Amino acid sequence: MSGIILPCVTDHLVLSTIAGAADLLAEDLRAMASVRSVRQTSPHTVECVVDGPLDELAACPLYSTAAVRDLQRSLRSGVLSCLEPPVKFRVGDRDPVRRRAMIADFEQRCGWLNRPGEWDVNLERSADGWVVQYGPLAWPRRFGSLRRLPWSTNLIAAEVLVRLAKIRPHQTVLDPFCGTGTILLAARRREPTVRLLGADHDPHALALAGYNTKPWVPNVVRAEAGSLPVADGSVDRVVANLPFGKQVGSHRSNRGLYPGVLREIDRVLAPAGRVVLLTEDKRLLRRVVERQRGLKVVRERLLRYGGASPTAYVLTRLGRSAESR
């Protein structure tokens, strides 16, 4: 997490996540000493009251933005009251007349500065009115900006995949489609002692992964996912966002890709290993798993974000007990 200074406050916040992750976010919030009154209010929002330091909340990577529930109260005694003047803000509204009116109102009433590129407060127009986001709790402010490609794994989806993987200390974790390193970063956030392996066929993506993972550098190589330079039975966890044809790959190419990938995962996976694969090519993956016969699906979780609705599949070896789920 970046070195931002976070205050002790009492405020009612609305945290935004992706559909399919809200229950995990709520579970994390209930374990925090400074957070109470946690409730899921929609498939992608969780509300809570923070009463104390924000450090635990800021360290949670399962939400993208935090908005105040009551603007005036927050200005008096909540997170907005702690911002150093002059407060910089932006207004997100496609209607230019309404946007200019809102900018003028906050400049005059609060003395804030309209700075869309470096905001402390982001005012977004929604179907239910204005949403007032608190800048220091935005995802990039907490964890840093990443260099990404259009098909890079959604940041919160990566966190969900890692939770489903149940990574333990000092395990070896492999992402055979590592791209720009999003899942590798999430795995290290979850368990700093893991040994991380990544592979991808795209040299440009690997260059971005190298930038994103500085100053620590995982073992990342250029390789095809169906032919990995990894020893048999040496990997405890495989976590990957498979190509599923929205922005990269196609169903036709996946019919050849998925069987090879599953065979290779079966080869490198340790006897007690666990696999988490994200795809929207769902029927194909299930069919390949059934034919492959070395692994079985033990759990599924549907996610929704950015117009996509992929499912995360958890796989273990045949014969593993229900406890592995």
UniProtKB/TrEMBL annotation:
Keyword Transferase: yes
Molecular functions per Gene Ontology: tRNA (guanine) methyltransferase activity
BP terms from Gene Ontology: tRNA methylation
Superkingdom as given in the UniProt entry: Bacteria
Every Ribosomal RNA large subunit methyltransferase K/L-like methyltransferase domain range: 158-306
Keywords: Methyltransferase, Transferase
Name under which the protein is recorded: Methyltransferase domain-containing protein
Organism: Kribbella sp. HUAS MG21
